[in-house]
Design brief:
The complex is a heterodimer of chains A (449) and B (300). Chain A is of the alpha+beta class and 449 residues long. Chain A is built from 10 helices and 12 strands. Chain A has 2 domains: 83 residues, no CATH class; 333 residues, no CATH class. Chain B has a domain of 201 residues: f41 fragment of flagellin, N-terminal domain. Classes of the chains: A alpha+beta (449), B mainly alpha (300).
Chain lengths: 449, 300
């Protein structure tokens, strides 16, 4: 009977494995048997049969930890990569209305004006090209800020997801501490918890330690998220720059120390990467506008008046690129003339020089834009290369984890046959014993021997 | 050792990988570019910014050269006519100074010289596409207008400035000479000397006619010298045109080497990617349905 029970349990484990072959986070279970102590009856030693110790989930905690770390890194790289992909399309020359195209059209229109200083159509061309350039600055800056605000929105959403996960993990932790016994390693509950911790690691970098009352999970820098049955809620609040700051359960701002995961990636993009690009773009916009306005002031417009500002840049340097506009609406206000007469083109050389000379930043407008394009492209290409590299690493770890924990239907089918045979054999023993008993009971009765 | 029984994720990764190479190769073949986004090659994308701007500038400089060239040619041919007229005036003056000329001959010559003066003024007022060529930078004002109070009978309304047109990043060419320099210069006054010649011829004073003819002759030399400036500009523009054509070729070959794609390589990459993709799909189709169940007979 012990043999039948044990084999039936093994069959059930196999059946459960097959049923959960495609369940995410499921860890295959194997039935653990051990033989009972022998019985010694009057010197006759006989086997004690079999005991089912329980069902053992096959998992490798160390691999799980590595996978969690790599998952954090990858989802951080992915988050940055997708934000940068979004940004870099506005720096792509194939978009046609990028700053490079607008700068080149503006420069061309000035060269054309040099040959036809008195043509109002050509003057209008310069004005329109100037407006296009200002628009290109505006739209590039807007693309950057919109990527920044979507990263900001991602921070809030991710924090909410983290809180949901940590409270679920805390709940499972407390269930585990009640049910875990040596014979029962908490199979499904632990599977569920591992799966949730895995999801959590994709959201932010975490550090997991085992303690007597279950797992303790902290962020990479030690802010507690889950301690046994308790979870600690993270909060978000708008900071002085309007961006959402992440606060721990005591209200301390931990934004700057968060690394890894979607949250770390979004914070990195929002607070480091994009502001870096924006600062350069703003510097370029404001220095170029200043240089061009200075050149305007050296000349005279078509009505003979001293040149006035061509571009208006907002006073706040942070709004330079997003707020740059063309100050004049009448093409006759372009300071073409160097002597006040309508046909002079003497000041165009100054205007063109504003485009070709080095700005205070040390580079020409085209070169400083080119360096920005390089940085954006490089950041995007690095983030995606990093994601690919970690992806390969992660794939290898997942393979390893799979080789330990995943359900093989082939293996389970084989086991099914094995346990089926064992069950049949055990059942045959029962029927054999029954036959023997019948024979024994019938001894000496009718038809006796 | 137990192997990961779950081959689906790895298979999918391999298929996705091969599909991504396929799509990259296809994009390169269809766009003819190897750099479609800055991240494809950040350094090349950055250099392309400069290349784009320079290419557009060179195009515009080429247009400037051709438009300035015809303007300069117009001015030059106007001056050439002026030289012809002045030569004619000098021979008329010489004829008038000759003692054999009668007073009525001198009057007739005076009328002819007066005609030459008007034609020179007309040339001085030459315009090209609506802008006056010899008015300095005041190209919208008629340079010479009739003014009976002026000794020459004409007043200069232009200014003394010159325009230069950009035909290269660091090259501007002077495209005009102000009338005040060519026609009414105080030392070699073309209009003034012609006008004096008319007056002298009308008075019949052969000495005065002789002096006036000498003055016209020196003005003639002066105008011929000034024409050289236009000649220089023309040859500079022709040189620059050749240079710009060369530059266009250079920039476009630079652009090709930066972001262009070698079609042979791209086509090879595409067919390689296709082969890889087929192999990944074929392997997946072969391996995934393979289970032990295929080999077990159904239970009775």
């Amino acid at each position: 009977m012990q043999a039948l029970d044990a084999t039936q349990a093994a069959l059930e484990a196999t059946s459960n494995n097959i049923a959960n072959a495609n369940t995410p986070g499921y860890t295959r279970e194997i039935a653990q048997f051990s033989e009972n102590t022998e019985t010694n009856t009057d010197g006759q030693v006989s086997g004690g049969g079999v005991t089912l110790d329980g069902l053992q989930s096959v998992r490798d905690e160390l691999l799980n930890l590595q996978i969690q770390q790599q998952t954090s890194l990858q989802s951080s790289a992915d988050t940055q990569s997708s934000a940068l992909q979004q940004i870099q399309s506005s720096f792509s020359s194939s978009s046609g209305n990028d700053i490079a195209g607008a700068l080149s059209a503006f420069s061309t229109s000035l060269a054309q004006l040099s040959a036809n200083p008195a043509s109002s159509a050509v003057q209008q061309g310069v004005l329109s090209a100037g407006q296009d350039l200002a628009n290109a600055f505006n739209s590039t800056a807007n693309a950057l800020t919109s990527a920044q605000s979507s990263a900001d929105a991602q921070v809030t959403q991710t924090v909410a997801q983290i809180n949901t996960l940590t409270s679920q993990i805390a709940q499972l932790n407390s269930q585990l501490s009640q049910t875990q016994t040596p014979a029962n390693n908490g199979g499904t509950v632990e599977d569920q918890r591992d799966e949730l911790v895995q999801q959590l690691s994709a959201l932010t970098g975490i550090s997991v330690t085992q303690s007597s009352d279950g797992e303790t999970i902290t962020t990479g820098n030690g802010t507690p998220l889950v301690m046994g049955g308790h979870s600690f809620t993270l909060q978000t609040t708008a900071g002085s720059d309007g961006m959402q700051q992440v606060l721990d359960s005591n209200g301390n701002n931990i934004t700057a120390s968060i690394q890894g995961g979607t949250l770390g990636g979004a914070i990195q993009v929002r607070d480091q990467v994009i502001p870096g690009f924006l600062t350069q773009l703003n510097t370029l916009a404001s220095q170029f506008a200043t240089a061009f306005n200075d050149a305007q002031k050296k000349g005279f417009d078509s009505t003979g008046k001293a040149g006035q500002d061509f571009f208006t840049v907002p006073a706040n340097p942070a709004d330079a690129a997003s707020g740059i506009t063309v100050a004049i609406s009448n093409p006759s206000l372009i300071a073409i003339s160097s002597d006040g007469s309508a046909g002079s083109n003497g000041n165009i050389a100054n205007l063109s020089t504003a485009l070709t000379n080095a700005l205070p930043s040390g580079q020409t407008p085209a070169a400083s834009y080119a360096s920005l394009v390089f940085q954006v492209g490089n950041a995007a290409s690095n983030a995606s290369a990093e994601s690919t590299a970690i992806g390969l690493n992660l794939q290898q770890l997942t393979d390893q984890q799979g080789s330990v924990s995943a359900v093989s239907t082939d293996e389970e089918t084989t086991n099914l046959i094995r346990f089926q045979t064992a069950y049949e054999a055990a059942a045959r023993i029962v029927s054999t014993i029954q036959q023997l008993s019948t024979v024994t009971l019938n001894m000496g009765t009718s038809g006796g021997y | 050792m137990r192997v990961d029984p779950n081959m689906v994720p790895n298979m999918l990764a391999a298929i996705q990988q091969s599909e991504s190479s396929l799509s990259t190769a296809l994009q390169q073949v269809s766009t003819g570019k190897s750099v479609n986004l800055p991240s494809d090659n950040p350094a090349a994308a950055a250099e392309m910014v400069q290349n784009t701007i320079e290419t557009a500038d060179v195009d515009q400089y080429t247009q400037n050269v051709s438009s300035v060239l015809s303007m300069v040619q117009t001015a030059d041919s106007a001056l050439s006519s002026v030289v012809t007229s002045l030569t004619q005036a000098v021979s008329l003056g010489t004829e008038g100074a000759n003692g054999t000329s009668s007073a009525s001959d001198q009057q007739a010559i005076a009328t002819q010289v007066q005609g030459i003066l008007s034609s020179v003024v007309a040339h001085a007022n030459t315009s090209y596409q609506g802008s006056y060529l010899f008015g300095g930078t005041a190209s919208t004002t008629t340079p010479y207008i009739v003014d009976p109070t002026s000794p020459s009978g004409y007043t200069y309304k232009g200014n003394d400035d010159v325009n230069s047109v950009q035909v290269g990043d660091k090259l501007s060419v002077q495209i005009n000479l102000p009338g005040s320099q060519i026609f009414s210069n105080s030392s070699n006054d073309v209009l003034g000397s012609l006008s004096s010649l008319v007056t002298a011829l009308q008075s019949g004073d052969t000495t005065a006619i002789g002096n006036a003819t000498t003055a016209v002759s020196s003005a003639l030399n002066y105008v011929s010298q000034q024409r050289v400036i236009y000649g220089n500009t023309e040859s500079q523009l022709n040189c620059q045109e050749t240079y710009l054509q060369q530059e266009t070729v250079n920039l476009s070959s630079q652009a090709t080497s930066l972001v262009g794609v070698d079609m042979a390589t791209a086509a090879t990459n595409l067919s390689q990617a296709e082969t890889d993709n087929n192999a990944a799909l074929a392997a997946a189709a072969k391996v995934l349905p393979n289970t032990i169940l295929n080999y077990l007979s159904a239970p009775d």
